[in-house]
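Predicting structure from sequence has reshaped protein science. With that in mind, we have picked out one protein's residues alongside their backbone shape tokens:
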Amino acid sequence: MNNLLISEPPLQVLPSLAKIVGLNEAIVLQQFHYWLERSNNIRDGYKWIYNSYSKWNEQFPFWSNATLRRTINNLEKQGFFITANYNKAGFDKTKWYRIDYERVSNASAQNEQTSCSKCASASAQNEQTNTNRLPETTTETNNNTSDNKSDHIQYKQIIDYLNEKAGKHFRNVESNKKLIRARWHEGYRLDDFKKVIDNKVLDANDANSFFTDKYLQPSTLFGNKFDQYLNQQIKPKVEKGTKSYGGVEF
């Protein structure tokens, strides 16, 4: 009997997610999210994963291949999965997947509104009964929930900061937002973007650096080298147009 209890890495899923997309879909969506967080396949500013159905089936051995295909197709039709083909061979039709996290957030918000409406019409007695069955909500939990709701992508603040520091005039358009969104979904936040901008502005002003002013743009700063720029050790600034000999600048 104990062999049927947790003795191997479990597949985890939130009941609230299962309520929105369905149980099978929630399990697959969560597993794809797990692998996307660990993926090094970056294309067009996003992380992607790919696999054959037989390989995916090894992760879900309790389903038939047909059930797994139907579940993945459902997520794709509902807009939770975005697919592409980045295979080197033209005949290779293996699908690449990424999650549309905005679609997931919107679905969650809609579900929350519906749930709140139902809660408002419930009786006080029913509310008390439900409270008794739930664990006590702590101050820490309330703070975390508030942080998550306010954790929206700060596109304008990032673009404005870049324009201010680099003397540019970039606009808050979708092509720039897509790059910011990709990094944001990887866990980077406003302070990280500001540090990258500061690092590369200093780098562009360094006479010994190959990084010049023309690279101070979203496509360069917020692309695949974002983490490298974030952790870059900036050397003491040397103004461009100056040279030194024997410790004397001229």
